[in-house]
Structure prediction request, 497 residues.
Amino acid sequence: MNIRSQISMVFHLDKCIGCHTCSIACKNIWTDRRGAEYMWWNNVETKPGTGYPTKWEDQDIYQGGWKKDGNSVSLRGAGKLKGLKNLFHNPALPVLEDYYEPWTYKYSDLFTAPEGDDQPTARPVSLVTGEPIDVKAGPNWDDDLSGSPDYARQDVNFKDLSPAEQESLFQLERMTFHYLPRICNHCLNPACVGSCPSGALYKRGEDGVVLINQERCRAWRMCVTACPYKKSYYNWHTGKSEKCILCYPRLESGQAPACMHSCVGRIRYLGVLLYDADRIHEVASADEKDLVDAQLGIYLDPFDENVIAAAKANGIADSTIRAAQLSPVYKFVKQWGIALPLHPEFRTLPNLFYVPPMLPAMASVDADGVYDSTTKSLWGGVETARLPMKYLASLFTAGDEEKVRNVLRKLLAVKIHRRDATVGDLPKEEVEEALRIGRTSASEADNIFRLTSLATFNERFVIPPAHREESIEMMEATADTKGETGFGFKMRPARGL
Prediction:
């Protein structure tokens, strides 16, 4: 086993209120500068919807991620031969209109406009050209617009729904939406790293954070094409690609990333997962129906003595192993099995997992026009959720509806158990039946409830010491008189963006 540690995340979608505080925190720290105006390393999308950039999930358009190629995988729209052909013309790149043209307002007009009968206004002007523009879209343009024809009806995840099923979602009685916050997934098998002709992208060995070396980047933009989540961006001012760095300077000082620290809904969790790097190729090339189980199987039990011994032999510090044992991500993903990867069919093995939303039960209108939203119990079953199971399965399990159904049943069992524990107005038979169907116990339901609702800051974010000093010592020990390491790389001071 080649045991490595990976900083991983869980986002609990039932708790997201769509306030965008996370997006603003990230924007103010990392992308508040020329050339990065359109970049949102952290964005919050409304689902159903087309997202940002528009239809980023449709790889027939953008050619991102990996595809199964026999017993292996290959990049869908990048790689050595494809990359060489597309170096000077890459039709799979999103254009500015797929994001939006960033703008500000010409506030000076409010003070310099000549006297007149009309109230002066601040016209929108492009941050790229400085010319007046008619604003047509933005990063959260479809925010809260459930059922809008321009966005919700164009959702890529409707592909497996019949026209009748799609249309039913836009009836008033079934209309619904939920939020989907997104950042870079810092994948185990990152397509952006595999696509870069310059070798500028790399995955840090100590924690798995994926970064771009700004000195090596030559603006080929293959990373933008290759990332199926479209979380690598091109800075038109500096001529470099940029992406979410998971606030690694904060992590190295024991602080949570800015988007997570500022999260109002406390939906975000961060911790360490141990995984077997020798299995990445095997897992990434699994059959689509087995992808979720294969990915979850690559993460190892941090309490297993054999795993601990192999991790120590591979140089993983005791403090990192202890952090993996306390990791909230390990609980959500492995122990409880209620957090799932986003679009596992992209085969990048993302390290950001989502607890699916428990959407409201659907209402109905009969032939006489009578509106009915009653259920036999206090909660409707998971089958009465307004979004079809096919939709959620398209998001989180590569189409496997049963996996989503099992997660929702366990989440519903937690709600029913806690209602019984706090109010006690439910029949015991109903509570026992919910726990049985949800494949959980009362004690596990209590633990899920606590980490979901009552967790402290230190329980939500378990950040191991960075141990950067060991990397520096290794480089110094192997450096020769020419200032080169034993690996042939020039030693340079660490640089930020």
